[in-house]
Amino acid sequence: MRYVSYYNGRGEVRPGLVDGARILEIDAPSLREYIALAPGERAARHTDRSVALDGTRLAAPVMPLRNVFCVGRNYLEHAKEGAAAFGLDLKLPSVPTFFTKATTAIADPDADLHLQARVSPHYDFEAELAVVIGERCKDVAEERALEVVFGYTCLNDMTARDLQRAHGQWFKGKSLDATCPIGPWIVGADEVTDPQALGIAMHVNGVEKQRSTTAQMIFPIARIIAELSRGATLLPGDVIATGTPEGVGFARTPPEWLADGDTLDVTIDRIGTLHNTVRIV
């Protein structure tokens, strides 16, 4: 199933299921609260009320209670290009490198992303597969980690590179408003039989900039969940961005920064395409 959040005729965000050309409304306050229900209770919240998918404005599919969890340097070739750009020796981590993005950075699919020129001239893109957690869990064993996944979606971990470097840690440079578009929907985990076998790509103005597969992750999704949940409770609706492949703007020669009017498309096999347009203000 494809799960969405959408704006109804009153401008309210409602959760729904995509059924062909229609969106069937879910009887729950939000998709996050629907995810928090026991699996057997979710079906009882499905309704026959519907709107046409075409022409309906979609919202970010889920708004987590807390920051988006992210994994840095999780594709080997991206780790290599980053080290080369900074003139450093490549040193791979023995455990995932975690950081977070503020929920105020989350943006809708198809939305214009209003980025402030006075804050940074060095906005960059990162195509990522995002995992949505489906149950409250802690100390999850790696061999059962995929069992706690509700579904998968596309995410663009946009970054102000100059701020990322200036602050030393990554939170500031990755948490500016409108720098975390998510969507267009969540595909249920039952429809993604192997999340480590998905093609992932980024196009800027229709030109391919990133192309890889999730098989190239240094730490697979099950390991990420196991490490993140070790001693720390994960909640239904938590979002984990799992890293980006090579080809990002800062590592190109010369560097390629986003400009006003640029279109961004994150495409992941079995999920779809997350589209946004940059507006520099």
Question: In words, what does this structure look like?
Answer:
This protein has 281 residues and is mainly beta. It folds into two domains: 2-59; 68-280, Alpha-Beta Complex (Fumarylacetoacetate hydrolase, domain 2), CATH 3.90.850. It has helices spanning 31-35, 39-42, 76-86, 161-167, 171-174, 221-229; strands at residues 2-7, 13-19, 22-26, 46-52, 58-59, 68-72, 97-101, 106-107, 112-115, 123-124, 127-133, 149-156, 159-160, 180-188, 199-204, 207-213, 239-241, 263-268, 272-280. Strands 1, 2, 3, 4, 5, 6, 7, 8, 11, 12, 14 and 17 form a twelve-stranded mixed β-sheet that branches. A hairpin with a 2-residue loop joins strand 2 (13-19) and strand 3 (22-26). The chain starts with a strand and ends with a strand. The relative contact order is 0.21.
Layout of helices and strands:
Elements: E1 2-7, E2 13-19, E3 22-26, H1 31-35, H2 39-42, E4 46-52, E5 58-59, E6 68-72, H3 76-86, E7 97-101, E8 106-107, E9 112-115, E10 123-124, E11 127-133, E12 149-156, E13 159-160, H4 161-167, H5 171-174, E14 180-188, E15 199-204, E16 207-213, H6 221-229, E17 239-241, E18 263-268, E19 272-280
Parallel strand pairs: 6-17, 8-14, 9-19
Antiparallel strand pairs: 1-2, 1-5, 1-14, 2-3, 3-4, 6-7, 10-13, 11-12, 11-17, 12-14, 15-16, 15-18, 18-19
**What is the rounded Rg?**
18 Å
DSSP strand tally = 19
- What's the level 1 CATH class of the largest domain? Alpha Beta
CATH superfamily of the largest domain: Fumarylacetoacetase-like, C-terminal domain
What is the total number of structural domains? 2
Shape: globular
